[in-house]
Structures are given as structure tokens and as C-alpha cells.
Amino acid sequence: MVVIPLFEGVQSIGFSGPADVFSAANAANASDTAVAGEFRYDVLTASPDGSPVRTSNGLTVMAHRTVGEVAEVDTVLVPGAEGVPAVDRGTTDALGALVGRARRVASVGTGAFVLAGTGILDRRRAATHWEFSEELVRRYPGVHVDSRDTVVRDGHITTAGGGASAIDLALSLVEDDLGREVSQLVARSLVTYVSKPGGQAQFADLRDRDARTPALRKAQNLISSCPGGDLTLRALSGHAGLSERHFTRLFRAQVGMSVREYVERVRVATATRMLVETVRSPESIAREAGFGTETTMRKSFLRVLRVLPAEYRNRFS
């Protein structure tokens, strides 16, 4: 039994997408005479009081029962909302009791906030929509938030990024239960992929994080305006008028990453714009963005975005 809690403002794709995946998996599994009838997904929806729920796109969905009335449960899958879901304490407590009995727990997008409210994500890696990753860290510092990957698994808990990643999550659950062949059959029937290159990192916001200290902001402006220039620690600290040691310590404290990481992210952001907006060769883009060589640019793209420059261009240009 897959139990999907519903609440006001829930995104419909967060529960309808997985429900379609599980339905297709039932059909694919039934077509295999060797295992037909041995495994079947049954999907049950539950709202706080059993009443109909209005989704974020204006649809109204009838729930099968209340969260507290659910008896049989194997998997709990919590969908997300367009923002942080507003779930009352009573519903969170009832959901906490439910996930405590489940063999497997999952969430989509900001549904991770609902799970985090039950305490089940404490000291675990979890994904949420990349736009809300910092908010999840702020509200629940015990959760190790990973907004780079589309689907993150930690023990019996699987969490996914926003929107369409609900289908990626459901496909991964099907693969666990029925094997990769069935998961691939379902993916083909829905005209999608079992997994997508790049995770969420390719969508993450790479805008500059402004430092508070004017000297650091001066260095940040230099990095942004001249990504292909001399951006060594020595050059940047000299431009800021600070010692290398003091500059390094202040930069990490105020920007949240090392100088090297920041320079790399700005260069990657510069290269992504040129890949999408121009037809210039990767070699030319690598030089202008400050990587020097295409090989270095490829390594940085894989490290920061987990996707190759050519894949990024094909997907977004």
C-alpha cells in the first residue's frame, strides 16, 4: 500500500505522477506471466480530515480517508507544494505515527519540510526543491540537505527535488521493487528517462553571494566582470587590500564558500550563458570564461553541475 498524504496547496504532479508510474508498473508486471499477480501497487490518498483538497493549480481532489484512519501502509510518499507546505501540528503528529510504521518513506520537493517536521530526517541526507534548500537548512539544521541530486536516498528514506522529479523518484522505487527492466518499461511507456543527467545542480541559482565587507565585494565585482583574468588568491587579496590569510577567512565566512569555489562557480555560470546564447566552440568559451582549456571546463561542469558542457548546451540552448 502506497499512502500519499494530501494537504491544501499540494502540487498535483507530486502525487499524480507517481500514481501513474505505479499504475504503469502494475500493467507491466502483469504482462510478465512468470510474476503476474505476485506484486501490485495500491495507492491510497489521505487528507488531514478526509475532506477534498484544493491543489496549487486549482483542481479539487477527493481523499480516500484521513491520515489518522490509515491502517495498512508499506510506503508513505509526501508530495510538495509551490512553496513550503502549511501543515498543522496535529497532521504532522499523525503523519509521524504513519511514517513510523512504514517500510519505506519518500517525499517530493518541499514535501521534505513535512517529513522534517516529523523528525524522521534528522541526521539524514535529503533533497528538496533547490530554491528552498537553504530554507530547509534554516528550519531544520539537523537535516543534511543535498539539493544537487534529483533523487537522494538515505536508508529507507528517499527524497526528490521539485515537480517532475516525482516521476524520477517513483521510477527508482519501482526499480527497487520490480527490477530495472520493469522500471525501463514504465519509463518508455511514459516517454521519459529512468534517470536524467545533471540532477538539480544544473538548475541551481549561481548568482553571486554578496559579501558584507566592501573590500570583498570589490573582489567579487572583479571576478564577475573578468572571469578570464588573473583570479589567483594573491591577485584578489591584493585587489581587496587585504592579506591572503585575512581575505581567505573573511571570504568563506561571508560568502559561504572558498575563493576557489566561488571563482569556479562564476566561471561555470559565464560558460553556461555562452553555451546557450552563442554558437561559439567549447574551446573558445573555455578560454574566455577563464578555464584555459576545454578539459578543465569539462571537469568543472561535472563538479559543479554534474553535466557535461555539450549536454548542457543540447538541453538548454
UniProtKB/TrEMBL annotation:
A Pfam family of this chain: DJ-1_PfpI
Keyword set, alphabetical order: Transcription, Transcription regulation
GO function terms (MF aspect): DNA-binding transcription factor activity; sequence-specific DNA binding
Domain HTH araC/xylS-type: 217-315
Cited InterPro entries: Class_I_gatase-like (IPR029062), DJ-1/PfpI (IPR002818), Homeodomain-like_sf (IPR009057), HTH_AraC (IPR018060), INH-QAR (IPR052158)
Protein name: Transcriptional regulator
